[in-house]
Amino acid sequence: NASMLSYMLFSCLLLSVQAHNCKVSEIIRYTKHLLDENPVNCPCRETTVSSCSCLPIPETGHELSCFVEGTEHMMKNSMLSNEILQRLNQSFQNQRDRKLCGHLSRSDQCQSKTKGNVKEFLTEILKTYQAIKK
Ligand SMILES: *[C@@H]1O[C@H](CO)[C@@H](O)[C@H](O)[C@H]1NC(C)=O
């Protein structure tokens, strides 16, 4: 019937708007830029402030909260290009607060199963957004 159809149309529209605001291609591009700066790949240590710092590798549903946390940590410690980190921070916070990107923004709190160094953290971001793009 008609109301069912308009509901379905509305849902499709909403989903496509949300996917659009997820800025998948933009985030993939920024993350690749940061990986190109070639952060040193060493085992992460809680006490270090370098690309060997420990950043959260999120559990499902906690992605955006953890990406915000890790990105802010990198900014505070002046790791990698600050201009790109700033844009990533803004996109992640915006997506988390507006509950965009489907399950990535399900939780406001970062919960991580493990920690990784800067390179592993960035690779996790890349993998997460590349999976959405498919
Ligand atoms: C990250 O982005 C948010 C939202 O735009 C902003 O309020 C916050 O100050 C930014 N964090 C840093 C460390 O710049």
TrEMBL record:
Residues 1-19 form the signal peptide. The keyword Nucleotidyltransferase does not apply. One of its GO terms (molecular function) is interleukin-9 receptor binding. InterPro entries: IL-9. The keyword Ligase does not apply. Keywords: Signal. One of its GO terms (cellular component) is extracellular space. This is Interleukin-9. It comes from Struthio camelus australis. The lineage of its organism: Eukaryota, Metazoa, Chordata, Craniata, Vertebrata.
